[in-house]
Amino acid sequence: MTTGVAVAATPASASVETPDLDPAFALHRGGKIEIRSTVPVRDADDLSLAYTPGVARVCTAIADQPALADDYTWVSNVVAVVSDGTAVLGLGDIGPSAAMPVMEGKALLFKEFAGVDAVPICLDCTDVDGLVETVVRLAPSFGGINLEDISAPRCFEIEDRLRDLLDIPVFHDDQHGTAIVALAALQNAARLTGRTLGDLRAVVAGAGASGVAVTRILLEAGIGDIAVSDSKGMIYEGREGLNPVKQALARDTNRAGHTGSTEEALAGADLFLGLSGSTVPEQAIASMAPGAIVFALSNPTPEVHPDVAARHVSVVATGRSDFPNQINNVLAFPGVFRGALDVRATAITENMKVAAANALAGVVGDDLSATYIIPSPFDERVAPAVTAAVAAQARADGVARG
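^ thats the sequence. predicted structure below, dont judge the formating
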């Protein structure tokens, strides 16, 4: 799940029949990004340096010392935004062509928020082997790979294999961008309510890409206890029909041994994290512990309406821009890649993700309140703070090359 900026929904039939009346169509006409040259070509001398024969000297130098490509090509500042169109926003499997406006939008956000150039690449391929092979073959043209809107559980294997095969950052934003921002917001929500992460018992609804990643980063950060549910109920050791990803979750979570429904597990819980697209009734939220926290992150319809949740809990966050405390991936991925590219990192480590979350939480500072646990995407402090933290952690983790 990508928690992007939410906009008012327009009925699909109306927008298709009258695109000229829909401002979204007007904005997207001709696409949202372009490639521009960074050097002038005014005369024959400029041409001879930008292209032949001058370019040959640069090519020869890179052939002798491949690392020079970082200095003398665009590679050190460009990311591939790769999707197969199988899990696009709240639209599902709509295919690569229909996914392109989203990938263009992602590239636009990279540039606007962190000065990172990005190229949208929508692949007409859903086979794991084929997708991995394609990205590996494309990788020499890029300084990083941002995987986007690839369905679970395939997305886990694809990312793992690419991380093993490539020496540049590979980052599935639906997983880790959501996880970083959720962790940052939760750190502040816990602080606001006088607790630490270790004091909290959490219930996560949803075991897809974002649900698994949020669970994993919260475990890394020291959450007190956490249990995860899917469409069949709570995930626990011994439950039949679990895929390998869910089997691993069963081993590492749910120390209390919940085996029933999400609603049953919420009784007395301190935190609900919704990443499922399901609905949670008000009485289940009301059964949570005093001072509870609700992150209902499904878009465009949260698992519980924020106003309803606010009747019973201390802090509410959503994935929507029209309520306070939006958990928006754009708070994370531009700065994460900017920091990784700046030090020419070979990977994005777990520590780098946690460092990004810590930096993001720190931006809020003393302005913390129930309606301000996470900064706005338009807060100009965000990307520099995340960039600096990620770059420093990359050096500490030994994955920086520059």
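The longest strand covers residues 78-83.
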